[in-house]
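Researcher: Good morning. I'm working through a list of sequences from a screen, and I'd like to move beyond sequence-only analysis. For each chain I'm collecting a predicted structure so we can compare shapes side by side. This is the next one on the list. No need for commentary yet; just the structure.
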Amino acid sequence: LAQRCFPEQSASDAWQLVFHRLVPSFGQPLAESRSLCASIRAHSARVLKLEEE
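Model: Good morning. Structure tokens for this chain:
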């Protein structure tokens, strides 16, 4: 959405860095990489405290 609303700004390195901080898998299709998908799911579970300790 941000890329559509702010195409010039979102092309900058600074905005790309922000996108990657907010969404670590930004620009990478999770369906094509099992390892990336697994690491993102594990990270999300930790952040959301969904893991059993």
